[in-house]
Amino acid sequence: MKVGEVEIKWLGHSGFLIQNSATIYIDPYQIKDGLPKADYIFLTHGHYDHCSLPDLTKLIQDKTKIIMTADCQSTINKFENPLRTEIVEPLQDLEFGILKVSTLPAYNIGKSYHQKNENLVGYLIKINDVLIYHAGDSDLIPEMQKLTGYHHKNKNLILLIPVGGKFTMNVDEAVEMAKLVKPSLVIPMHWGTIIGTKDDAEEFVQLCKEEGIRGEVLEKE
Fold first, then answer.
1. Domain 2-210 is of which CATH architecture?
2. Interacting residues of 81 by C-beta distance below 8 A, sequence separation 6+
3. Which of 116, 111, 92 is nearest to 42 (CA)?
């Protein structure tokens, strides 16, 4: 789908392809062959379904830069040739060409899968007048309050929100996040592969609609 001048494609699970003047991937996993090579790849954390060596291999070119958390290094170091990388942790502000990027924490509350002290992240990526927040593997956490001011400033605020439950927010928690932030668009992710179903994604979008929030279930590219 297109938002402003930015094309957003869901690649399955938590993977996205974002295209403008740059080709950007976030957490590619079990992607098809033949996708365009990456200028930037953002990895939210080092779990195999977010930092996947076979998928990264399909996308790397000489100029690709990988922005990643520290726990991704053991996977990235398996490449024979050194890659252009940058290690990030929560609450950083960065610029890469036209991209302005902020990192937010991503962690579970009352679960052991993603601990706060692991410094895993979600990414807030600004491309011209489009602002995209990929929540990573996270529950609804207090730090997401930081996003609440953006809907006043940016007409194209898009949330990519996990809805599968267990490892992340479930449908109801994801709806609460959407209500908190009040984006212009929400897109459910983290469903259809390991955990979560299309029914979860559609229920999420319907509940958001009842709250006056636009949602879209994207078909896997």
1. 4-Layer Sandwich (3.60)
2. none
3. 92
